[in-house]
Amino acid sequence: MDHIDIKARAKVNLALDVLGRRPDGYHNVRMVMQSIDLYDEVRVVSTDGDIRLYCDDKSLPLDENNLAYRAAMLLKERFNVRRGADIHIRKNIPVAAGLAGGSSDGAAVLKALNELWGIGLSGQKLMELGLALGADVPYCILGGTALAEGIGEVLTPLPDLPKTWMVLVKPEIDISTKWVYTHLDLDKLTDRPDIDAMVKAVEDRDIRAVAENLSNVLESVSARRYPVIEAIKNGLTGMGALGSVMSGSGPTVFGIFKDRAAAQRAARVLAMEYGHVYVTSTYNDRV
Ligand code: ATP
Questions:
Q1: What was the pLDDT predicted at 108?
Q2: Which of 9, 46, 208, 210 has its CB 3.0 to 4.6 Å from that of 201, i.e. a possible disulfide?
Q3: Looking at the predicted structure, is the pLDDT value of residue 286 above 70?
Q4: Catalytic positions, please?
């Protein structure tokens, strides 16, 4: 076997709360994560050469600033691997969108090279290693539905949700994660996400309760500065979404729909106003 094709899946946050800032600058969080059926297509080839990265999105770096490249270098250096790799990425996940596209590419490369190079790390060890690349990488290795605590690396798998249809809308604004956290004033917040209610909704496999409990503490920060966030939420609800929320640090907003047809109807209308609209569903087949 000299190559592996792997789908690097995006995630959404069904619920996201920030508990506080740690002395090292990271934030302790509690979030319910969900993989979705929107993915980058990643081919990893084991070679005799160096680590080389190819990507159809020419705006992305191809060096150590790319998490996929960094993932390969991390394994190579940590385990003194003599072999190299060609990594080909077809980007389908919008970049800097709150969907963990980069983290997922990094996770996919770790999984693929762990096999191709015969390193043989367990899933748990691979997740521990992945944390060095970013707080979302361990979850991206695990996938499915999960509660993430700590800085995102303390993971508790949750029962699979029934397949649930969603519409994602990414507005044409750039929101940096750093900016959102800088403007988050936890002391001033009265309305906090109920993470336990979301966990229960997932455990009950109750999509309506999931939709009702969608909540993101970072949304208040982004929505205050960018009215388009609220406008998209209203648009989704107006088109029949059972609930809607911003994912991660944004700016992507998603809504949950009762079935595929309802999601497609809403997407057709929203696409007249917004450039990046995706119909997708939850994805729960853990690797
Ligand atoms: P998160 O939800 O974890 O905050 P995100 O979806 O907001 O992530 P990404 O798409 O992962 O953001 O990209 C954020 C930045 O990371 C981009 O500015 C990009 O230059 C850089 N980056 C590094 N590697 C990648 C990659 N493989 N794909 C996309 N972006 C990458």
A1: 98
A2: 210
A3: no
A4: 11, 136
